[in-house]
Write a structure and sequence with these properties.
There is one protein chain. This protein has six helices and nine strands; from the N terminus they run βαβαβαβαβαββαββ. It is α/β, with parallel strands linked by helices. It has two domains: 107 residues, Formyl transferase, N-terminal domain (Rossmann fold), CATH 3.40.50.170; 95 residues, Formyl transferase, N-terminal domain (Rossmann fold, 3-Layer(aba) Sandwich). Helix 1 links the parallel strand 1 and strand 2. The two termini are 20 Å apart.
Length: 206
């Protein structure tokens, strides 16, 4: 059984999509052990606790940065059985950069979702970047987390056409629908042991 932790900072809509898929048995072999937020007022905490009965924890920064914060995060994850041997960590709007020490501790066991077709438009405000650049196609990317910003190997991408009438808000809303479909699929592929990383390529095994 894979022990899952989801890290959030806000509403946690992708967290919601993963936990819903688990509840509806669309994801098997995964146990949701904890949802952790760096923000005590994150709406996603209440959703996880009340809607899905998943334990929640708050780990506020209190001025801590880098490994000073992440070492506390590791201790909390291990408390809930999310280890480098048995754990999977999903970032779902977690607005902190993970330290190299943390990423090294969980190699290819941290997933993130990004609202663009990486490597295009990494970082913040990807939808705004897409609109301003005049791109005709956008979408979302689920990827492994490495030491860079949105640079890890790509697991799943889903695409859509950018409409001439789109603005940042409308494009974000349409991409979010793709995210809610793609992220649970990526979690299931990982849980099934179907993902093989070969350099920058992620191969999906039959």
């Amino acid at each position: 059984m894979l022990n899952l932790a989801i890290l959030i900072s806000g509403r946690g809509s992708n967290m919601d999509s993963i936990l819903k898929a688990l509840k509806e048995r669309k994801i098997a072999g995964v146990s949701p052990r904890v949802v952790i937020s760096d923000k005590p007022d994150a709406p996603g905490l209440r959703i996880a606790s009340e809607k899905y009965n998943v334990p929640v924890q708050v780990l506020a920064a209190n001025g801590r940065r880098g490994w000073e914060y992440d070492s506390k995060l590791v201790a909390l994850l291990e408390k809930f059985g999310v280890t480098e041997q048995s754990g999977l960590i999903c970032l779902a709007g977690f607005m902190r950069l993970l330290s190299p020490e943390f990423v090294s501790r969980y190699p290819m066991r941290i997933l993130n979702i990004h609202p663009a077709l990486l490597p295009a438009f990494p970082g913040l405000h990807a939808q705004r970047q897409t609109i301003e650049y005049g791109a005709k196609v956008s979408g979302c990317t689920v990827h492994f987390v490495d030491r860079g910003t949105d640079t890890g190997p790509v697991i799943i991408q889903q695409a859509l056409q950018v409409n001439e009438s789109d603005n940042e808000e409308s494009l974000s809303a349409r991409i979010l629908e793709l995210e809610h479909d793609a992220y649970p699929k990526a979690v299931q592929l990982f849980a099934d042991g179907k993902l093989k990383v070969n350099g920058r390529k992620v191969l999906v095994q039959p």
